[in-house]
Structure formats: C-alpha cells, structure tokens
Give the backbone structure.
Amino acid sequence: MRSASGLSAASWDENKSCMKQSPFKCSLYYIARRTKRQIERKENTPKNGKKSARSIVYKVNPRSRANTAEKEGTMMKKTICALGTAALLFGSLATAEKEALHFSEDSHSFIVTSEVIGRSEYGETAFDIRVTMDGNEIQTINFTAENVNEGQREAVLCDVNMDGYADLALMNSMGASDGFASYYLYEPMTGQFVHHPGLDRLSFYRAQFYPEKRYVLNYLHDSAATGIWELYQWQTDGELKLLSEAAIQFEGDALTAMAGRAKNGTIKISYTSEPFAYEDEARRRLECDKLMAILFDGDDPGEAAELGLRP
C-alpha cells in the first residue's frame, strides 16, 4: 500500500519523525518527482559531455597575420563545428520560435520577447527572454524549461505578490492537469524582474490569489481525491508567510482530512476527521468546507483574482 505522497508503507514509517513536525512535509509529491527527474537526467548525461549550452565559446590559436584569408577560413570552420555541437546537444531549429508580450508599468512601455534557442533530448527547451522598456533593452534572462506543452506561451503576466505591479511567470514544467512556473517579480526601484525561487512551488493552474488581503492559497494536486492546501499571506516587509496547511490523504483504504495553523514555523494539527470512503463525494465536499474554514481561520479572503491580476 502506498500513501498519498507516493511513499511505500515502510518508507512512510521511516519518515514519522518528519510527520511529527508536519504531516504535509513528507507528502510533497511534485517536488519529489521533479527532483527525481533532474537526478535521472544528470546520471544519464555523459561525464565528458555537456547537457545544454546557452552560448558557444571557442578558442582560436594565434596564427600569422599575413595570411588573413587562411585565418578567416579557420575561424569559419571552428564556428561551424561549434554550431554543429550545439545543434546536437540542444537540437537545431529550422525557424526561430518567438513571441512578444506588451504591457505598461509606471507609465513605461514594456515588451517581453521570448525566443526558443534550442531543445534537448531530455525534453528541455532553452529560451532567450529579453525585456525592453521604452524601446531600450534593460534585461536578458537565459531560461531553461523542463517540460512545456507545445503552443504554451512561455512568458505570462501575473501579479503574484499583488502589489499592483505586473510580474512575469516563466513556464517551467507543465502537464495536463497541473504545472509550475518560475516567478520574476517586478522591482520598481530598479525596473528589473527578479526571480524568487521560493515561489516555484506554487501550482500555476491551481493556486488562488486574493488581492484584498493578499492571501495565496496553493494546492498541490495528488489524485482525484487527495492533495495538500497551503495558505500564505504577503507581509508588508515582502515576506510570503505560511499561515496554515490542510490535506486529504489516504489512511489505509479510506480518506482522512486534517488541518492546522502554523506556530513558530511548525504546523499544529487542530482537526483530524474520521476516515471516510473514497467514493463518498458528499462527505469529501463537507470535509473540504471544514478545511477551508480552518485554513482562513474564519476570515473572509474576498474575491479571488486570476494570477493575482486585478480587473
């Protein structure tokens, strides 16, 4: 029997020390799965080979300056060899795949272009992201996505910290029912978009944003009936603070709901339901309502806004 996190019963017992602090920390299904994929790709990469290359660097040995034509011929051969190597590593593209995103920020006009510069045999796609403000290029982001759906826009506007400034979500790992992005928050003082790795765990499809009180309700989908909710709130100092967690998970062949508030960095469980059947949808909806009330501690979060963007 496997738990909702995908751990075997034996492995679950071994992780009880972790469960005492928080029953949810051992159930981060997506984080574990992505880490496993990265390790497998690393192990399958030849030790003397490169898995990807965003830029090509080659060395030209000093030659006689008198023979300029010979020098140019040698340079051309080295360039062709270098480009050939990059094509083998990341795949050659017949035509450049490019998209542009236009928006305004603080009376400035922004254009964000994302161009595919290569694809690897591991399903990774390399992008060249360029940010232009008022006609001047101000930032370049070299970004590699693990797995993106064909036709999916790479750069998406959002306001993940709900401060009224548009941020960028760069699509990273996408699937049929869930996905993850890397979030670059706009900093008005510098005019730059800065990556915040701590936000990468937010589900792109399932996280909900409540601008009125700056709540972020993240949901890590596990199965049709199981998953983990994490409630965060943006603080005035820019910290995204964890307030509470809840989950519906398998307990043997039945489901169990549990929830608790964060205290001193640890989740204190305040509610655990009686086990109920997987097929009992009415009971599952009832338990979900109870979990939401505990997560928000009775507070009304206001209206949710898609990707945090106010109408």
